[in-house]
Amino acid sequence: MEDQRDWIQAVERTWIARFPKQMLATFGTTNLNYFVVTEPAYRDFQPEKQEGVVRIGKVVAQKPAVVTPTYALNLQGFSDEARDYMQQMAQEYGSNSPGILYQYKNEAQRIDILSGEAREIARRIGKDLDERKEDLSVVIVGVDELWDVALMKFIYEFTSSSLAGNVREFQARGMLDPQAAYGGIPKAAIQQIERLFQEVERGRDPDDLKRELDQWGVFEHFEDRFLRLFRRRQ
Questions:
Q1: Looking at the domain assignment, is residue 72 inside a domain?
Q2: What span, in angstroms and rounded, lies between the C-alpha atoms of 213 and 221?
Q3: What whole-number distance in Å separates Cα of residue 22 and Cα of residue 87?
Q4: Are residues 126 and 197 in the same domain?
Q5: pLDDT tens sequence across 129-143
Q6: Same domain, 47 and 158
Q7: Are residues 197 and 118 in the same domain?
Q8: What 3-state class would DSSP assign to 72?
Q9: How far apart are the C-alpha atoms of 169 and 149, rounded to whole Å?
Q10: Domain residue limits at 56
């Protein structure tokens, strides 16, 4: 429980000093530069030192993917509690109700020590980014020992603010439309499956295609076509 209180307090003490000027791209990868500013952990022992720690790096947001509860239940690496949640969503909204999956990768780059209070350092960095029109950069003030909690809070808020726009763009292209001929999975899933069929024909491992079909629960709809891939290779 102590650890939980620590990260809850870290979240409460985190704030976004400068939010990115652009939202997450719907149909491409988004590269976000971050600057997490904290008071150093040694500040309590050396209060005379007016300096802050700046952790600089990049968060890579992969292209958002359309998923359904059925698809999510077939992904690996989730806890039993997460699977129970997806089961509940499947029962409440339908096994093929579309949602959007966001995947991120953190690429830490370096740590700088700058003079001044954390808030003032954050203000200076934000002003510099504005002058250089760095639209995909964020400045965050957090807690030194749990600085990555501050980063995760930002990722959550950034994803939430981008979600409505991403959904509208998916809807405008009909990518969330259910495909009755394939059990009601969204159009985006069929497009991904078609791309994988083409890549397998060019030499990609068929296991990748089989895994995708199984995760969507539609292997029986494509079984004959899948088996023909092997007949062509013989």
A1: no
A2: 9
A3: 34
A4: no
A5: 999 999 999 999 999
A6: yes
A7: no
A8: helix
A9: 30
A10: 2-64+102-172
Strand partners, 186: 178
Q: What percent of the chain has pLDDT over 90?
A: 69
Residue 182 above 80 pLDDT? yes
Residue 198: inside a domain, yes or no?
yes
Cα dihedral sign for 228, 230, 233, 234? negative
Q: For 101, phi and psi rounded to 5 degrees? A: -105, 125
Print burial letters for 15-33: b (CB count within 10 Å at least 16), e (below 16).
ebbbebeebbbbeeebebb
User: For residue 87, is it within any domain?
Assistant: no
Task: Quick: pLDDT tens for 215-230.
Answer: 999 999 999 999 998 7
Residue 88 pLDDT: 82
Same domain for 49 and 121, yes or no, is yes
Cα–Cα distance for residue pair 142/234, rounded to 1 Å: 59
| Tokens found for residue 32 | 């976000």
End position of a domain, from candidates 149, 172, 195: 172
What are the residues whose beta carbons fall under 8 Å from the beta carbon of 10, sequence distance 6 or more? 142, 143, 145, 146, 149, 150
pTM of the predicted structure, to 2 decimals: 0.81
Per the structure block, which two tokens stand in for 215? 């995760």
For the segment 35-55, what is each residue's pLDDT rounded down to a tens digit?
Answer: 999 999 876 666 667 899 999
Residues 194-210 as b or e (16 or more Cβ within 10 Å = b): eebbeebeeeeebeebe
| Residue reference for tokens 């603010």 | 161
DSSP string, 134-188: -TTEEEEEE-GGGHHHHHHHHHHHHHHHHHHHHHHHHHHTTTT-EEGGGTTEEHH
